[in-house]
Write a structure and sequence with these properties.
Methylamine Dehydrogenase, Chain H, globular, 5-stranded antiparallel β-sheet, mainly beta
């Protein structure tokens, strides 16, 4: 496993201070809000690379230098605790330990089930009782490597791995059966004879362009397509119907750590090169094109999250800040509106649920943020209790018998200490809280 190198202090160029860049970007005017239908154009815009991304530069330090000045040119969006219009209570319901000696690398919720990845195993828990229902092993060979991410599409489960593969599983009751590995055997057979289908990975080493060449670090599924990013610096798009790779893009100059996709098909990728890039495929065009580059972070970008209507993008990096990017109503572009500050070390994961943003950090805490009426964000709660960095998060809103939100959220935090903590967070407006106290 590569956890030891991942824990090293940021010493590469990806974590050095960069010059200030413009924060305004233009989005494509041709972009249409519709579900893209993918066809096999068998295209690759991936430029051959002489070397694969080095592990030490593909992720940032979990021990970020606290002396680094955190984006002084970006205004803070933090509200003073005294001005919050919400009342918050939270407590830890229980702690789950799938395997004491193995870090929890990914958490994901599907219906009433919580999936937790530890090394090459996935533990399935009942959300309500927190009992372990099933455990299945994804290690099909000695080189399978640890699980990086888990995501879902109906009864299909997709997992990404350290060995550069994406595996597809079918879920039926308690049984999980592997359907295929991406790229599929059929996809390889269709392409392996033609020299044009190969790209140079490193000297005297070539691969099919449909293959990732390093750990697959992020995955998103929407509009009938699978989007994957990797430490090999590429973004690949796969057709969900037959799992065929239809496009590969050389997305960044360093390892790609995160991907987020809006419902209109706009793709956001975050990288160790400190940049967030925006990609779109226009109507009747075959390939995704770069339409914008967001440059404000001073170190590796680790996590991305979109709000419900994709009008706000959140990005977390080794510089200990969460940047908030917003579309302006008066124009077709996006700007950085400010930063959320409070974490003492690198931001490792972000999750948006309803109107809440959750952030997990190498400082071993989880922070819960909510936007107030004036556009600024209040840190509603700091969930503390892990002994090592918080690597993964999942959250779901809770509902009453009438299926309306009761103002509570169940939060699941996974840490490199091998523990999953289950939290209940209750949020009420201050006016409602005052009425309840006076009644």
């Amino acid at each position: 496993m590569r956890f030891q190198s991942w824990l090293h202090t940021c010493s590469s160029a990806t974590c050095t201070v960069a010059t200030t860049h413009p924060s305004t970007i233009s989005l494509p005017h041709k972009q249409q809000k519709h579900a893209y239908q993918y066809h096999d154009h068998s295209t690759s815009s991936e430029a051959p690379s002489s070397t694969t991304s080095n592990t030490s530069t593909s992720t940032c330090s979990l021990q970020s230098n606290l002396s680094i000045q955190t984006l002084p040119s970006v205004p803070s969006l933090n509200l003073s605790p005294q001005t919050l219009t919400f009342s918050v209570s939270h407590h830890c319901l229980t702690t789950l330990t799938p395997h004491p000696s193995r870090p929890v690398t990914s958490l994901a919720v599907n219906d009433t089930l919580l999936y937790a990845a530890t090394d090459h195993q996935i533990n399935v828990y009942d959300l309500h009782s927190c009992t372990n229902l099933h455990t299945f092993d994804t290690k099909l060979s000695t080189s399978s490597g640890s699980i990086k991410t888990i995501t879902f599409s109906k009864n299909i489960i997709l997992t990404t791995h350290q060995d550069s593969k994406i595996r597809v599983w079918h879920h039926n009751n308690k049984n999980h059966r592997m359907l295929t590995t991406l790229p599929t055997v059929n996809d390889r057979l269709r392409r392996f004879l033609l020299p044009k289908n190969y790209v140079t990975i490193r000297r005297h080493n070539k691969r099919l362009w449909i293959e990732h060449a390093d750990a697959v670090t992020g995955l998103a599924v929407t509009n009938g397509a699978i989007y994957s990013v990797s430490w090999d610096r590429t973004l690949k798009i796969w057709r969900l119907s037959d799992f065929r790779c239809v496009e590969s893009v050389r997305a960044h100059e360093d390892a790609v750590n995160a991907v987020a996709v809006s419902n209109d098909g706009t793709v956001y990728t975050g990288s160790a090169d400190r940049r967030i890039r925006v990609w779109a495929r226009h109507v009747d065009e075959k390939r995704h094109v770069l339409v914008a580059t967001l440059e404000k972070h001073k170190s590796a970008v680790n996590a991305l999250a979109l709000n419900d209507d994709a009008s706000v993008l959140f990005s977390g990096a080794c510089d200990r800040s969460i940047l908030v990017w917003e579309r302006e109503d008066s124009a077709n572009h996006m700007v950085v509106s400010g930063a959320l500050r409070g974490h003492q070390k690198a931001i490792l994961c972000l999750v948006n649920v309803s109107d809440l943003l959750l952030s997990g950090s190498a400082d071993r805490t989880v922070r819960i943020w909510r936007r107030d009426y004036d556009g600024r964000f209040g840190c509603l709660a700091v969930l503390d209790g892990h002994r090592k960095p918080v690597k993964s998060l999942a959250a779901i809103p809770e509902y009453d018998q009438n299926k309306t939100s009761n103002g509570s959220v169940s939060v699941f935090s996974g840490s490199l200490d091998g523990e999953i903590k289950v939290w209940q967070v209750s949020i009420v407006s201050q006016s409602k809280h005052d009425r309840e106290l006076n009644s």
